[in-house]
């Protein structure tokens, strides 16, 4: 059986709508929580897919959160292996950092549902189904485009929303995986951040209700296409 390993930093920021799709595609889905699990014993090249998920800490916070050092080593080894790697929010920032790009605070929060502007490369990428579909944004940091990466998407508040290295590595600042039926966990778990940013949870809740089905449909199309492309890159076909 194929294996998908998800690095989960906070319990409710999980694979969301991606999990069922991965299981349908024949993956055994496993979670590791970098804050408590020993990543030094993990073979970075053994899983068919690694997904580094989001979280409320920064990509350069290993002094305050020492577990990040081991996670960075694991992602660095995965990048060197050339095997499929997906980074979402913090995960994308960690990939960008390891690729030599600057990761820093924007000075404000981008929280809530909003559409992406796809670049020409993005329109010709697996992200094409997201055109016109509001995705969930939830971040206060941003990354520069890593050298050698293709910029795929932006928003007015954050110019670098997605990048790719070939077909194997995809970094997404936004949350395409967010399950609208579980948005209440996000609203409760990040209630202090919402209040600090002046974001009304009722707005996010209503937008999740309104846009959730379209996002889930587009996300499935994105991931089906990406997984199809990966079959020739070490991920075994069904």
Your description of this structure?
- It is a single chain.
- This protein is of the alpha/beta class.
- The chain contains seven helices and ten strands.
- It has one domain (2-233): Class I glutamine amidotransferase (GATase) domain (Rossmann fold, 3-Layer(aba) Sandwich).
- The protein is globular, with a radius of gyration of 16 Å.
- Strands 2-1-3-4-10-9-8-6 form an eight-stranded mixed β-sheet, sandwiched between helices.
- Helix content is 34%, strand content 26%.
- The model has no long low-confidence stretch (mean pLDDT 96).
Order of adjacent strands in the largest pleated sheet: 2-1-3-4-10-9-8-6
Fourth-tier CATH superfamily name:
Class I glutamine amidotransferase (GATase) domain
Q: Return the string of H and E elements.
A: EHEEHEHEEHEEEEHHH
List unreliable stretches of 5+ residues.
Answer: none
Biggest β-sheet: count, sense, barrel?
8 strands, mixed
Strand content: 25-35%
Mean pLDDT score: 96
Shape: globular
Individual helix count = 7
In short:
With 238 residues, this protein is of the alpha/beta class. The protein is 34% helix and 26% strand. It has a single domain (2-233), classed as 3-Layer(aba) Sandwich (Rossmann fold).
List the helices and strands and how they pair.
Layout: E1 2-7, H1 17-24, E2 27-32, E3 49-52, H2 67-81, E4 85-88, H3 90-98, E5 103-114, E6 117-118, H4 120-123, E7 135-143, E8 150-155, E9 158-165, E10 169-172, H5 183-189, H6 191-197, H7 201-230
Parallel strand pairs: 1-2, 1-3, 3-4, 4-10
Antiparallel strand pairs: 5-7, 6-8, 8-9, 9-10
């Amino acid at each position: 059986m194929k294996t998908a390993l998800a690095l989960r930093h906070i319990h409710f920021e999980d694979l969301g709508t991606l999990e069922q799709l991965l299981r349908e595609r024949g993956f055994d889905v496993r979670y590791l929580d970098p804050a408590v699990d020993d990543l030094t014993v993990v073979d970075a090249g053994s899983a068919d897919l690694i997904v580094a998920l989001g979280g409320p800490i920064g990509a350069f916070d290993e002094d305050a959160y020492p577990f990040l050092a081991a996670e960075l080593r694991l992602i660095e080894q995965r990048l060197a292996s050339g095997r499929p790697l997906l980074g979402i929010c913090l995960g994308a920032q960690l990939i960008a950092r390891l690729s030599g790009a600057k990761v820093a605070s924007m000075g404000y929060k981008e929280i809530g549902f909003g559409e992406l502007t796809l670049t020409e490369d993005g329109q010709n990428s697996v992200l094409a189904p997201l055109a016109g579909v509001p995705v969930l944004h939830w971040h206060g940091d941003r990354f520069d485009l890593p050298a050698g990466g293709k910029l795929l998407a932006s928003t007015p508040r954050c110019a670098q929303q997605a990048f790719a290295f070939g077909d194997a590595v995809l970094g997404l600042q936004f949350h395409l995986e967010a399950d609208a039926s579980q948005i209440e966990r996000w609203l409760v778990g990040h209630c202090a951040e919402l209040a600090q940013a002046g974001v009304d949870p009722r707005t996010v809740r209503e937008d999740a209700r309104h846009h959730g089905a379209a996002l889930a449909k587009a996300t499935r199309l994105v991931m089906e296409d990406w997984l199809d492309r990966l079959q020739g890159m070490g991920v075994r076909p069904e």
